[in-house]
Amino acid sequence: MKKPFVTKEQVEQIVKDFPTPFHLYDEKGIRENARKLKQAFSWNKGYKEYFAVKATPNPFILNILKEEGCGTDCSSLTELMMSKACDITGTDIMFSSNDTPAEDFVLAKELGAIINLDDITHIDFLDKVCGIPKRICCRFNPGGYFTLGTDIMDNPGDAKYGMTKDQIIEAYTRLKGMGVEEFGLHAFLASNTVTNEYYPTLAKIIFELAVELKEKTGANITFVNLSGGVGIPYTPDKEPNDILAIGEGVRKVFEEVMVPAGLGDVAIFTELGRFMLAPYGCLVTKAIHEKHIYKEYIGVDACAVNLMRPAMYGAYHHITVLGKENEPCDHKYDVTGSLCENNDKFAIDRMLPKIDMGDYLVIHDTGAHGFAMGYNYNGRLKSAEVLLKEDGSTELIRRAETPKDYFATFDFTDIFADI
Question: Which helix (H) or strand (E) holds 300?
Fold first, then answer.
């Protein structure tokens, strides 16, 4: 079973300052996980983790990871701005975007970020809007299906990202002729994999392409970015990834493919979001209604505005009823929010202990792609984000939205002046 990193007693204290619902993050867990990741790739002298800002776009979180030696993986203008605000600039930023607006490229170039080109047509576009930098990266899409053994993990051929092999060879050749001195290679083939074999398998594909690119173009390849895709087990019956085993698997492939080709000094980068943060965040909500019709419903004060994944694609998030961790799960509930959409459900037919009004529920694994995917349908407001610090104290790291925030984009008129 999944165990929350916060107790009922702690939540009862936290809600005195920050009413539910709120996202809560575990600083101790975040730091320990970042250090373990760094240990897993310590064999590579140039290794760096570029945290995927889109997963948890909060400057307080970015600063914690910065202190642990991480950079940022940005995909938009505002993510670049947030990195800059945290004094994360230069090659501590990897800018991986697609269908990219000109102003995004301009700011990335100004900040000295490593620009990762998603498409061969972006070469001329980038050159026109701000010029080609001396260091650049290209994103590879091998097409077809990506498999591990007999299991189909994902379908890169149906993804909008990256270039074909022929396009990357052409891109490297052109970019070299345009003055690029250092090249990187990037690929993302599957999302949220819970297997220690994904990164080593991906690494072999990219490493072999790096060797081919060196031979065919003479490019000076200085880094390979394994991107994200290392996931977490959302259900309690699965074992989590062993990042030390994953790092060792990549090391073996590196020594098998890269070292003999004279690429033993190439740095390894990662762009992990879910693995870095998801288990170290939770959504804390309170049971406020119960309904007995054709099914048994528990209504909570959170909704899909606070956590979109279950409503969006039926994602499973484990739920703990605080204070009732050891009670039998002998009641079947749909746990719902207040939106005027029937898919606004955190759980369907979930076996849980008997839930009483006022009980606090912890919805697990929301530290990545949780708050970040929030929206304002029905005029519902996004919740606060709170940090549970290593010493047990709490810190507000984003206040809850107010109606004034919701109406802020009407500031050109006085319709809402009295709000």
Answer: strand 296-300
